[in-house]
Design a protein that fits this description.
- With 223 residues, the chain is mainly alpha-helical.
- The two termini are 12 Å apart.
- The chain has seven helices and no strands.
- Helix content is 67%, strand content 0%.
- The protein is globular and about 55 Å long.
Length: 223
Amino acid sequence: MDGDETGKPKGLGQSRSFTAILALLGCGALASLLYMASDLIGSLSWVGYSPLSQAFSELNAIGAPTRGLMLLLLAIDNVLLLAFGSGLLAARGRKAQRIAGSLVIANAVAGLSLPLFPMHVRGTGPAGGDLGHILLTIVTVALIILVFCFGAFAHGRAFRLYSFATLLVVVGFGAWAGMDGARLAAGEPTPWLGLKERVNIYAYIVWNAAFSIAALQKWRNRA
């Protein structure tokens, strides 16, 4: 892809590469929409499941009636994130955006490994049987926090303030939800766990969509 001394692409208004990068950057917003749809579809498909008191991960747990469906939807979601991360790298934006793109790709790869690290429906798994899932969750959370930290500096001051405000919500509600971890592992009731966890999740995926749209608009303006 050619560019002048300012780094602005030349003659890419109708080019395939320009359009391809637009599509890749848009995949971030699509991934967020699919994740929301997955939560809704999974919650409605499991009779008796409570999104207010049960964790999102229980929808894809071993023994859950929604496991197969959720694994498929989440795999598609992570493929979209892979595409988004690739777009962030290909768009040749700020260094912070390129690092964030690499982290998005790493997070998507971790997400695609979910079937290898399953959890069990509460009260049905062997002692320590969900350790792999817990470790995968820790890795995913760490990657998401890093995506926030670098993505915040990919755009202007307003986006940076929004990013760190959202990060506070994500960390705060994530820690609050984590307090129910022992009760969940023991198969005990966890009132409001689902709500606390979903505030954490939805704050992140809405930010991810905003990040995607901001990167897409910046790339379009370079044409």
